[in-house]
Amino acid sequence: MRVGIGLPGCVPGCDPAAVVRWARAAEAAGFSSLGVIDRLLYGALDPMASLAAAAAATTRIGLVTMVLAGPLRRAAV
After folding, report:
1. Which residues, listed in sequence order, are joined to residue 33 by a DSSP beta bridge?
2. Interval 6-24: pLDDT, tens
3. DSSP state string for 10-70
4. Residue 4: strand, helix, or coil
5. Is the pLDDT reported for residue 68 higher than 80?
6. What is the pTM of this model?
């Protein structure tokens, strides 16, 4: 059985460094994937940036988006 876990980036006030720690701990614990959701109404971290940080900090765990409100986000230029 494969079991995934969500990253804490959607928790209001989440420290971005917590995403990297969480991703490393999840991979070490044997989870198969890390998921993100998108929240626009409060200070959630950008879901794609969170997945990018998780990808840089891990080697084998899968990355998943469950809800992504991309067209509603401001372009990062």
Report:
1. 4, 62
2. 998 888 888 899 999 999 9
3. GSTT--HHHHHHHHHHHHHTT-SEEEE---SSS-PPPHHHHHHHHHHH-SS-EEEES---G
4. strand
5. no
6. 0.82
